[in-house]
Design brief:
Layout lengths: L1 E4 L2 E8 L6 E5 L10 H9 L3 E5 L18 H15 L4 E6 L1 H12 L4 E7 L4 H10 L1 H6 L1 H5 L5 H16 L7 H11 L4 H10 L14 E6 L7 H6 L8 E6 L6 H4 L1 H14 L11 E2 L5
Length: 290
């Protein structure tokens, strides 16, 4: 499906009946809404209405050239605008990687809109900021964020030799068909630069506060991007009901590496806040690119 608003046209995968409880899924770098295929199917089969958009820069119809147009405040505004266009006054929010960061900021800034929050891999931005000041391990893990601000050298490195370095980021944990689809998508003119602009947009305009909505945070022990320090500290930034799940032996790519495990945790979290939805026939709508 496609979602049009003032920012442009977002491509998205949607599934489930239109009257189901709404869930928005936000992907990270370097992926698209396709990353949530297994979660989309599982949620729709349980009666939820699920939408997984290709976020700003990943959707060709919302691909501004300036890095500052990818500031976190703009990305949060996209979430609000997308859900308003969908007619969702409240919704459950799920995010992974950069999508997790956007989800934290959205839940903190719009608690009346977000019914529950689920974040995979990404610690609360406040916990991460503290770790970057005091945790040598996390500083080393996050060095790539600074390196990737160099343009166009980063794009050239990632796409050289049939995108060998870009493919290596998936560490063999993302199914081959998915990795190939992401590489094709990001190899199109302007796509990778737009995705990297998330790293180049500068610091947030303000500070993030605590999250009040019921929150599930899922972190894996073999995540190379986010270490145990900020993961363990994230709970201090949640004032509402909080569940922290550690998945041993899994990498950063949890939604695709361990979909059944994540689906179980996610459904348990959603059912704990409002009970189980009626079962409805699964329907899936795609924009034709995924």
């Amino acid at each position: 499906m496609r979602i049009s608003n003032a920012a442009g046209v977002f491509d998205a995968v949607a599934a489930g009946t239109h009257d189901g409880r709404p869930v928005l899924l936000l992907h990270g770098f370097p992926q698209t809404g396709r990353a949530w295929r297994r979660q989309t199917a599982a949620l729709a089969a349980e009666g939820y209405r699920v939408v997984a958009p290709d976020q700003r820069g990943y959707s060709p119809g919302v691909r501004p050239e300036r890095a500052e147009d990818y500031r976190i405040g703009v990305l949060v505004a996209d979430v609000v605008a997308i859900t308003e266009e969908l007619g969702w006054p409240t919704f459950d929010l799920v995010g992974h990687d950069w999508g997790g960061a956007v989800a934290w900021w959205t839940a903190a800034g719009h608690p009346g809109r977000v019914r529950t929050l689920t974040v995979v891999s990404t610690p609360h931005p406040g916990a991460l900021a503290e770790a970057l000041r005091s945790d040598d391990d996390q500083r080393a893990r996050s060095q790539y964020m600074k390196d990737w601000r160099e343009a166009p050298a980063t794009e050239n490195r990632l796409l050289a030799d049939d995108a060998a370095l870009l493919r290596a980021l998936y560490a063999g944990k993302v199914p081959q068909a998915g990795a190939d689809a992401y590489v094709r998508h990001l190899s199109r003119p302007g796509a990778l630069t737009a995705a990297l602009n998330w790293y180049r947009s500068g610091r947030p305009d303000g500070e993030i506060g605590s999250v009040e909505v019921p929150t599930l945070y899922v972190w894996s022990t073999e995540d190379t991007a986010f270490g145990p320090g900020p993961a363990q500290e994230t709970g201090r930034w949640v004032d509402g009901p909080y569940r922290f799940e550690i998945l041993p032996g899994l990498s950063h790519w949890i939604p695709e590496e361990a979909p059944e495990t994540l689906n179980r945790l996610l459904l348990d979290h959603l059912r704990a806040d409002g009970g189980r939805n009626h079962r409805a026939p699964l329907t899936v709508e795609e924009n034709g690119r995924h």
